[in-house]
Specification:
Number of helices: 3
Shape: globular
Oligomer: single chain
Order of helices and strands: EHHEEEEEEH
Largest sheet: 7 strands, antiparallel
Strand content: 25-35%
């Protein structure tokens, strides 16, 4: 099994304070600016939806059904991530972890659960990996910059 096809991992240093980064990761209005429109609540077990752009190439409807699986205040948030309209075909988990570092924050993203034997999962992994790195995380940076004013 090729580990690179089962998980997307990104590590960044953000020049923003951990409190600011945590706000961007957990406030629905802020999440909608850098990720997707949502009805997130930071409570373990809370089920919520996120609305994004459909991706026909992998059968993604544009609606993500999620649940808060783990929440360690100002440190770690793990959610389930699946297409709301395709059962569990594209089920995975996304974890955001942060740690203070100097005057900024070390940010870790782990999106896991892709099946390298399934061509749809491989295509989804490729699209999401590019999306996280080239679109979503840069928008997170813009959102953080706006919060810092």
């Amino acid at each position: 099994m090729n580990e690179q096809l089962t998980t997307i991992e990104v590590e960044l240093f953000l020049r923003h304070a951990p409190e600011t980064v945590w706000r961007a990761l957990t406030e629905p209005e802020l999440i909608s600016r850098w990720l997707m429109e949502n009805d997130f609540e930071p409570v373990v077990g809370h089920q919520f939806q996120m609305r994004g752009i459909p991706v026909p190439a992998v059968g993604f409807s544009g609606l993500v059904a999620s649940e808060v699986l783990e929440l360690e205040d100002r440190k770690r948030l793990r959610i389930s991530w699946r297409d709301a309209n395709s059962g569990n075909d594209l089920s995975s988990t996304v974890t955001w972890s942060i740690a203070p570092e100097g005057t900024g924050t070390r940010f870790f993203l782990v999106h896991e659960g892709f099946n390298p034997a399934d061509p749809t999962h491989v295509a989804s992994h490729r699209i999401l990996s590019g999306g996280w790195r080239n679109q979503v995380l840069p928008r997170l940076g813009e959102t953080l910059a706006e919060l810092d004013g």
